[in-house]
Structures are given as C-alpha cells and as structure tokens.
Amino acid sequence: MLDDASSNPLKDGRQDVNMIETEGLKKSFGTVRALDGLDLAVPGGSVCALLGPNGAGKTTAIRVLATLTRPDAGSARIAGQDVVRHPGQVRRRIGLAGQHAAVDDDLTGRENLFILGLMYHLGRRGARQRADALLAQFGLADAADRLVKTWSGGMRRRLDLLASLVVAPPVLFLDEPTTGLDPRSRAEIWATIRTLASGGTTILLTTQHLDEADRLASYVVIIDAGRVTAHGRPATLKAAIGTRIDVVTGTAEDLPVAVAVLSRWATHPPTVEAGERRLTAPVAADAVTLPELVRQLDAAGVQAEDVSVRRPTLDEVFLNRTGAAPARAAGSETAA
Amino acid sequence: MNPTAWAGSATVGMATRARWALIDGLAAAERLITKLKHEPASIALTLGAPVVLVVIFGYIFGSAIKVPDGGNYREYLVPGLYVTIAANILPPMVTMARDSTRGVVDRFRSMPINRAVVPFGQATATAIYGLANFLLMALCGLAVGWRIHRGAGYALIALALLVAFQIAMTWVGMYLGLLIGNEEAAAQTGIVIFPITMVSNVFVPTSGMPAWLRLLADWNPVSALATAVRHLLGNPTPVNRAWPLEHPIAASLAWTAVLLAIFIPLCTVRYARSRR
Lengths: 336, 276
Prior knowledge:
Mean pLDDT of chain A: 85
Number of strands of chain A: 14
Low-confidence stretches of chain B: 1-9
Number of helices of chain A: 12
Strand order of the largest sheet of chain A: 6-7-8-3-9-10
Low-confidence stretches of chain A: 1-15, 324-336
Helix content of chain B: over 70%
Radius of gyration of chain A: 24 Å
Mean pLDDT of chain B: 88
Strand content of chain B: under 5%
Largest sheet of chain A: 6 strands, mixed
Distance between the termini of chain B: 30 Å
Number of strands of chain B: 0
Oligomer: heterodimer
Structural class of chain B: mainly alpha
Order of helices and strands of chain B: HHHHHHHHHHHHHH
Helix content of chain A: 25-40%
Radius of gyration of chain B: 21 Å
Strand content of chain A: 25-35%
Order of helices and strands of chain A: EEEHEEHEHHHEHEHEEHEHEEHEHH
Distance between the termini of chain A: 26 Å
C-alpha cells in the first residue's frame, strides 16, 4: 500500500486491496433464491472466474455488482464503493459485457462505439478516435463500417467486449463471454481478456466452461444454489480434490485384477469403461507414485497398455463440488 | 479513455450535470436517427404509408362518404391522417422493447449516464422523424386537393398541437415497450392499437355511429386533436356538441398534458429501474 499515493484514485491499492467484495449477498425472485449468502473477494488486478451450472446465481451476482439489480440483503463494494448506496460511483468504475451481445444490430461497429463514447463525454472527436483505436487494436477495423447484424457471432461478442472498454474501466464484468461461440472465436475472446488482464484490469467472469476458468482465471469460485461451495487457485482446488489414476488394460480379463489393485488407494470405487478397457479411480493427493503403481500392477500380472497418474480436470472438481449436498454448508465452504 | 476524469466527476456542480444530461440525451437521439439512416426500407414504408392511406380512404372509402354540412371528404380526411401519424405509438414501442430484450438498456443502466435522459433523447428523435412524416403527408394532401385555408399562423399552431401530441404518444409507446419487453409481441400489438384511431372522427364523422360507440369516439383524444387541426386549417369540421369537440384545442392540450404527466414519470422510473 506504500505506493498508493502516486496513482489515480481508481487504481488505489490494486495489488493489495479487494476491488470486488461481497458479504452475505442475498437475492430472491419469488420463491427462487438466486443468491443465498454469497461471499466474494477479488483482489485488484486479478482475474476471477465464477463457475457454476445454469441457475447457480452467476448472472444475478454480476447484475448486483453492476448495479442492475438490488440485493435483498448483504453488501457489495466495487473499489470500496457500495453498489446500493453509491451506484453512480460504481458505474464510473465498471464495464459490463453480457451474455447476450448488447450491441445495436442496426448500427455499424464504429457507430456503436462512437455513440457510447458520446455518452461517456469524450466529445465527438474523442469518441471517434477512441472507436477507431479500439477497432484497430482488437482487429475489427475491416468490418467497422458494416452493420453489426451482418457480423458473425464471435465478432459481435468482441464488439460487445469493446463496448465495455470505451473508457478503460478498472473493473470488468464478463457474463459468460464465450457461451455459444466456436473454438476460434473463443480463442480470440480469450486473447482479448488476457490482454486486458495484463494491463491490470480486475476481471470477474462467469462461465460454465471449465477449461475457460482454468485457462483465464488466477482464482476460481465455484457457486451452486447462490452460494460459494469452493474457492481457490485452480491448482489448489485440484490438489484439494486429490489425484486420478487412469489404467487401460491389454485384455478384458485383466480388468477385475486392475480394479482390485487400484482399490488399495481409491477413495471411491473405480469407474470402469469395459469397452475401452479403461479404469479411472480417484485417490487422495500424492497417495501413490507412478512407478509404485506400475510395479503393483505388474506384480498382480496386469498387462497395462497405458497407466497415468494425473491431477483431476476442473470438470471433475466441478462435478465433485456442485454434486455435494447443499445442506452440508459449513463443511463445504472452503476447499482451499 | 481516462478513468481519472470519471473519478473526479462525483463532485460537480448543477451546470455541469445539466450539460452532461444534455449530451447524454443528444447521444440517445443521435443513436436513433443514425439507425433510421440505415433502414431505407423502413423509411420508405413509413413514408409510403400516407400515400396508401390517402388512396384507400380518399378515393375508395371516400367515394361513398359524404361529409355532413358539406365539404370535400379528402379535405376532411387529410387532417385525420396527420393525427394517425401523431398517434402512432408502434415505432417507439418496438424500439424500446427491442432495446430491453437485447441488453442495450442494461448496458446504458450500467454506465455513469443520466438514465432518465435516454428516453427524453429518444422522444426527441421520434419528434424529428415525425416532422418529416407530417411534411410528406402534407405533400400527398396537396396533391389530392387538401388546402390550408386560414393562413400559416394557424397552420403552425396545428403543427405544434400535432407534434406535442406525438411526443406524448411516444412516451406512451416507450413505456408500453418497456412493459412488454419483447420485440415481436410489441410489433403485434399494432393490431390491437389500430381500432383506437378507428373509433374516432379521424376517418368519418361520429354522427352516424350508434350512441354508445359515438360516446367513445367523441371522447377519444384523437377526435379532439383531429377536430382542432381541421378547425385551425379551415378544413370541413362537422358540428358536434360533445364537450371535447366544442373546445378541441383546449381538449387536445389537456389530453397531451395528461398523457405526459402520467407517462413521463412511469417511463423514466421504469427505464431507470431493472425488473430482474
């Protein structure tokens, strides 16, 4: 915090202070509890992924943080500004790119950004220059003067992202930025997000794509039924969830023997894909080394075609966490 | 571009706030006008409608309609067609419904702009577009024998009444668009709205209608406005003893004021506040 005094007020304490904080955030729609005591803390300059299934409360969380929805209870602050008491202050510090590209189909890409520039009071010339700069920087200059309705889904999504960057906000909310995009467009969005993150922007993104959270985020928060079920660095989460052993046997006869061997360490019964002669077993982190595993299989007479000891994918973490009984709130708060 | 400028903007005077509100409103207006520039087909359709209406009503229905107390039916009709233009709430309704489904409204809501000002800007843009429609209708009217009989001064008053009413109806349309929040549904309500201009003296005098329908038609705001415009332009105005039609200018202004007083607050509050 020593070097804070030199920077502008929006960038205060980027490295040390939470740019996004919520405590006990609650929001219900009728009988549906979208948020049920959500606690979040996102340090300045980091990329945090809010990971969860449909209806977990991801979008509601973003809407509350972006001052679009009032929470029923709890509090939320962006750069220290309360979203309910000082929404105007919050809006000066945030950019929002939604799940549905909120750009005008009936305007060109350039006009879209120009109008937003006017609304951000950049002046006509300033707005024009900013639009040109953004379009050039993010590779949309060629299409800039075509109506957005003629653009591809990926290009529209990128324009939507640019629309949230007209004034380079210190905090950016991205609600499922790549949902429904083809792999190439997704990679382009990812590259854009990485560029922004490297520039020091604090980013909170929601996603159902586990590889997306894994690739982009320095911190992952898994939410289900409106509350946090696990959070931590992707590596920490994976470690907490243990290790996986995969074995492919040479013959079907070897499968039961291999199951017996794996059961020595497995925390859950191994899953068997008989057709592929593949076994997968979850074990506690570092319960067994690869050489030890190979020796034991060999000693039991298993002809293994493939043996691997690996950390679980975020997919497996995700299934493990959101599948946990929601009632077990106290025990499942933190996996890290 | 420069976040520092925004950080400082929390503590600014009224004058600056007013200037920013004006900039936001003009930007919202410019947005709609720019959109229109890209839709030559929709412009052609909107501007072509008066021609079609003049032909259908002026020559097809008009050939069988006699204006009581004498007068040319097409001279009676054209002021009525101005009123149908002023009362057309469909475009602002569809625009607003589209913006709220597509997330544009949410984007504006998440920006540090004066939220109430956006609908004001859109109303302004609609009014400017409306002026072009009135002008085209006038040209059509002149071609089929409609004339201004009482001079430019009264004609301008008539135009002012029409523009004021159109702005009021734009607010009604924007509010309904936000309420419906679905582009297709908003577009389809046109079928429901159409009878509202029909049950009036816009196309035919109310004197031949059954009593219950006539009561509705005489008190329809659209009838008062059509009567006022006919009166100010010196076009045929059949005698009608209903209060709003005896005092058509006062009645038009009153209806306009009532609609604005109701729908500006409803619409701005609804626009600023999210439903979800």
